Amino acid sequence: MATELSNGLPKFDPKSNDYYGVLLVADFVNVNTLKTEQNSLVMSDMLRTYLANLPGKRVIQVEFGKDIRLSDSGVISLTRNIDLANKQKVGANQVVVGTYLDLQSKLIINLRAIDPTNQIISSAVVRELKYSCSGGKLYLTN
C-alpha cells in the first residue's frame, strides 16, 4: 500500500526549494471509535517504515487521531485546518492520513495523501482484507 500510495504522489524536483519527498504521516484512526488505538499504532508505524524506505522520501510522525471525525454525510475528514500541520516548520509537501474499519471477517484500510497547501487528495489507496480464524490461526481469504 505504501508503494502504491507513493507512486500516486506528484513528482517533485529534488533540486527545487519545495520540501521534496517530505511526508507527515499521522497515526491511523479506527472509524468505529474515531480514536487511535493499539492496532492503529502498529499499522501507522508499519506505513511510516515502508514509506521511509522508499527512495526520495523522508517521513515525519505527527498525531492527528483526535482531529479526524466522521461528518454528518459519512465522510471522514480532518476537523481542523490541515494547513496547521504544514506550519510545524517541518515543510512537508504531503500529509498522509489513514483510517481503518474492522468488521466481522474483514478489515478495510484507507490511506490518503493530502496536499497541505490546498487540501486536495493527491493519492489514495484502499484495501479490503478478508480473513477467517480456525484452530487458533488467522487466515487471509480472497
Mean pLDDT: 78
Name the quaternary structure.
single chain
Q: What separation lies between the terminal Cα atoms?
A: 17 Å
List SSEs in N-to-C order: HEEHEEEHEEEE
- Which stretches of 5+ consecutive residues score pLDDT under 50? 70-76, 84-89
| CA-atom Rg in angstroms | 16 Å
- Which sheet architecture does the biggest sheet show? 7 strands, mixed
β-strand number: 9
Strand content: 35-45%
Number of helical stretches of at least 4 residues:
3
Please bin the fraction of helical residues: 10-25%
General form: elongated
* Helical/strand content category: alpha/beta
Quick overview of this protein structure:
This protein has 3 helices and 9 strands. It is an alpha/beta fold.
How is this structure best described in words?
The chain has 142 residues and is α/β, with parallel strands linked by helices. Helices cover 18% and strands 39% of the residues. The chain has helices at 2-7, 38-52, 83-86; strands at residues 22-26, 29-30, 58-62, 68-70, 76-78, 94-103, 106-114, 121-134, 137-141. The strands form 2 sheets. Strands 1, 2, 3, 6, 7, 8 and 9 form a 7-stranded mixed beta sheet that branches. A two-stranded antiparallel sheet has the order 4-5. A hairpin with a 5-residue loop joins strand 4 and strand 5. The two termini are 17 Å apart.
